Amino acid sequence: MSTTAPTPDVQPELKEPAPPPGPGLEREAEKAESRRGFLVGLPGYAYLLLFFATPLLIVVVYSFASRSVRGATVLADWNLDSYTRMTDSLVLTIAWRSLWIATLTTLLCLLVAYPFAYYLSTRPARTRAVLLVLVMIPFWSNFLVRTYAWRVLLGTDGPFTRLLATVGLDAQLLFTPTAVLIGLVYGYLPFMILPLYAAVERLDHSLVEAARDLYASGWQAFWKVTWPLSRPGVIAGSILVFIPSFGAYVTPEILGGRGSTMLGSYIARQFIGTASDWPFGSALSVTILVLMMFAAVAYFRAGGKNL
Amino acid sequence: MSVLEMPSGGGADVAEDSLARPKKVVDRILAGNAWLVFAFLYLPIVVLIIYSFNDNQRVGIWTEASLRWYGEMFANARVMDALRNSLIVMFVSTIVATVLGTMAALSMERYRYRGQRAYDGLLYLPVIIPDITMAVMLLLFFVQAFDLIFLASGVQFSRGLGTIMLAHIAFNISFVALVVRARLAGLDADLEEAAADLYASRWQAFRRVTLPLIAPGVAGGALLALTLSLDDVVITEFVSGAGSTTLPVYVFGSLRRGVTPLINAVSVLMLVGSIVLVLLSLAVSRRRESAGD
User: What pTM, to 2 d.p., does this model score?
Assistant: First the structure.
């Protein structure tokens, strides 16, 4: 930092008025302290500037680039073509599908996780600790492997399909948007449970009792006291589930079929495979990033600081 | 409380006769729901483990129990290569990211300086950015950087283990910093000041006071970094080159071609790896709790 350049280590000239003893020294010490703080953070800062901020800038630049006849990216003739292409009906279909699958995933997670978190928070401390560990284990386990497990479960040889077959239903589950939905709910359910639990556990149960004392029914007490107080958890959990579901790539790739491409897998296809179009893929990535930033800002506004 | 760490479980206890406790019927429904959630969470994992011991060529048809696929896994050179790559990437990226992330956390929590807020934002971004966006960013960056290096020096670099490690460090720094900051925020800065008052040098104060206090946080951050590194498939797939896959990228690639029982065994191997890491981090956070306040 230029403003805190070190003062040269020389004897001060006698002509100069001596600095006031107390505050001056203190300010020097303060400056040295903030310089030290900056230097401690510098390696990480520099790393992220080089390997995160610069790549971010490059994607933005690429999104305005054009393509040669043979499909290679040309870093010249800057234009907005990649952005205008987003109004193509195929892109809109995929965006719409991503939106409803992500929304439905979030709602289903909320529906299942809220009563679960509530139940958890009303258990005795010891039971609660054990149950929490049981939630944490799948949360930390490999996401790809957990998604893959559903491929085995939902496959034609799998137990679910056979169970449905015995009832006379010949349903194809795997490679449909339903399978993607199941996979996403499964994958991100702990992301909903944990912030919800944190919010419900923190709330003061004596408030509910006070409401009951004032002749509120159980339902009224829940609706007027518990639910509003747990709303930060609801918002945090919803955003933590919605963001990764909306940009999902692994789940639709493993469990989805032709008709279940989502934005994440569509972006990946612009870079991997034959029909690659880097500027278009970059424009899509930039758009999805901007949308997610808005969601994240909403999250922090809502008071959720725990990630 | 952070979702990334073990919740402390120190909330208000609800007495058995409390009015805040739902009625019997509601309680039953809640309990039923909880059991269903646990079944939902564990059924796929359990089925996967069981089927990995299945002798049959076809994944879903059970014939008899055997260790056949585990044998084939350890004999498969590509799997073993991928495993070795995964381990190298995990450890190197975790060590670098833990050092850089801890320093970043200290710089954020213990000092004030100009430009700090910009740094703060930069530290948070990798946590909230979608995987696919980060993958695209890093791919384009490496392609562009290697082109420039080639033009400038005539040396042609290509994507491989090196780029995978650089990418993993980039996202792990932020997660380590997040965990260590949570720990630092809960600590009293007075202890460090007391050490300084007692004529400890900066380094001594850090080494003898701060570091032991934040050690559980640092360990927690490192375990998270190991887990994330072992889990990552999207970013790694984009920045890896020919002949340098990690275990998840190998599994993902084979899944695109179809399911084989071999993948079940590899999956269980990865599952065991991440479960060991969870249990370790739970043990660490227990420690952290008791060592804390």
Answer: 0.86
